[in-house]
Amino acid sequence: MRKIRVYELAKEYKMTSKNLILKLQGIGITVANHMSTLSEDEHEKFINFVRGDLPPEEISKETDKNPPIKEKTDKPMVKTSKEIEKTNTPEVKKTEAVKKHAASPRAAKSKQGIVAKKEDDAPEAPRKNWQKRKRGTKAQYRRDKDDKFVDLAGSEIEIDDHITLGELAEKLQKPATELIMKFMTMGEMYTINSNMSFETAELLAAEFDIELVRAQTLSEIEEERFDFEDSDDDLSERAPVVTVMGHVDHGKTSLLDTIRNTRVTKKEAGGITQHIGASEIHVKGKKIVFLDTPGHEAFTTLRARGALITDIVILVVAADDGVKPQTVEAIHHAQSAGVPIIVAINKMDKPAANPERVKQELTEHKLLVEDYGGDVIAVEVSAKSGEGIETLLEMVLIVAEMLELKANAHRAGVGTIIEANVDRRMGSTATVLLEKGTMKIGDNIFAGSSFGRIRTMINDTGKRLKVTGPSSAFEITGLNEVPMAGEKIYVTVDDQTARLYAQRNADKERTQRIQQPKMIASLEAIPGEEGEAKVLNLILRADVHGSVEAIKQSLEKINTDEVMVNIIKAQVGAITESDILLATASEAVILGFNVRPDNNIQSVAERENVEIRTYRVIYDIINDVRDALSGMLDPEQKEVVEGNIEVRETFKVPSVGTIAGGYVMRGKISRTSMVRLIRNGIVIHEGAVSSLKRFKDDVKQVQTGYECGIGIKNYNDIKEGDIIETFLIKEIQRSLD
Known about the structure:
Helix content: 25-40%
CATH superfamily of the largest domain: P-loop containing nucleotide triphosphate hydrolases
Largest sheet: 6 strands, mixed
Number of helices: 24
Structural class: alpha+beta
């Protein structure tokens, strides 16, 4: 059902708005006037009333007094002779006499009793009338039950990704019981409220020769409404967005450092870039926007995201190190996004630099440089000395000119969240790459489930902006919560629209979380006989979303069938007291990346005996968790044979049993050893040593070449010529590597 105004519904049923308002009041729906809007539930309730499906208890007695809904005709409202006769009946006259009597002083004494009697008697008449009406309606419904379904064979029907069986039955115009029976014949058990995927519904619909089409997702609807294609007349030239990619420690940030004349590398722990950064530079009067993606393998997702929002990729390869696995990864991301690549062969100032080797290795990955007859530009540079930097920037401008990059600056802004975090002073902040349109202070925005109004806009140099256009990178504040990195951000006409779409996205995310299974452990990963897999519970806190995402992805790769990581909470921001309480309840360890607990939080953690570990480099987190999981692994048991004894004589000792007199042929025999009795090459028994003697003295061990007496615990079937082999079970600590 849809929302509808009163006058529209009245027009649909060919009646006056006044008459419709009376009907609505009779079924418990109160409206102010003909312009009032009925909700979907109210609309459906009215339709059920018209069909006669509404339960009698939901209909007041006033509804019965109203005439049934009739189609409006052009005939004059003239009373028939029967109606005139009915008006003058004794019952009507009697009613008027009762009214006169009610006004007299005598009647006033018993007024309360009369009212009470009316209230007791009133429900009876409508109930009888409704019983008749309901019987007639249900009977009619039963007669029309088989005729109300429409045969949709050969048609297409649009449904969502997930749908209940009842909703699917309504879409397919089939009884739900028929669908349930179909599933039973297919070996599946479903109820009317069971959820099913699009693929399952599609398989069932095929049984009725009906084709299902996947409905547009909310993001697709948003894209059509907010991220539409602009006409060529509205487009103007925009700056290129350049992503710098490459292997870790090949000099990506140092290269940008030289370009921007800043010292970014010194600020990063261990000289490794931890977050995606965005900056703008001007070359020969033209702007270039640079994105610096981390090179560590944990940031694969971020690097892929960077490739999707960029126009040109600068692939940095160290001249003394050549093409590495993460270099190949970066090539694949750029190629899959269809982005042109410019190769920057860095560290040319080093004696071991070999650019020809780099060019040769690139050909193995379908990158043929111009020197080798290809179309990929390669520039030899040195981030340390500045050699080749100007040439590299000129190449970027040339490639950008060939791409003819354009955008419409005179429309509502559309961009991408590059990074997001929580600032103690500013609240939720997000780094935005504006792709098209304009953003300004005061604009209403939403990104995923976050919404708000732009309070401040600051570029990479710290300058405050009031308005900015396409191909701009800046940080904004004003969102109600931290958005996810990679979310699209849209400018809307008002705050209500922004709030509405953010709420819809939040509802969609919540539904998906409910429908998805918990990612703690799969049933296949838990050994059935050996016992349950051991789980290390973790609470993760980081300064930005990108780090949270990267750390989670890296830690989940460590999981095995025996031990696994369960990240019960992963959020942006400082460690809080609620984290301590959650860690206490779940016996979890708190990991903080680029965040530190204050003295109060540290005191609470010590009191609750909760371990907090803080890090500045992701490598350290991964290594520590790997070591912890290795310690949780059950040690490997290895058998070590100590020696063997040849039984040369046996003695039966009262209350002790059979004692073997033997000769140690090899190794040694220990009192704590396990023994294995071998007869004619076949193992007869395994057990423990009950006694070990040299002559009459108890000893701890006997070496090779000596005689001894040995008893086997709870075993007496020892014969001459048997071999007693002694061994130990040693536990060896295992590692995940």
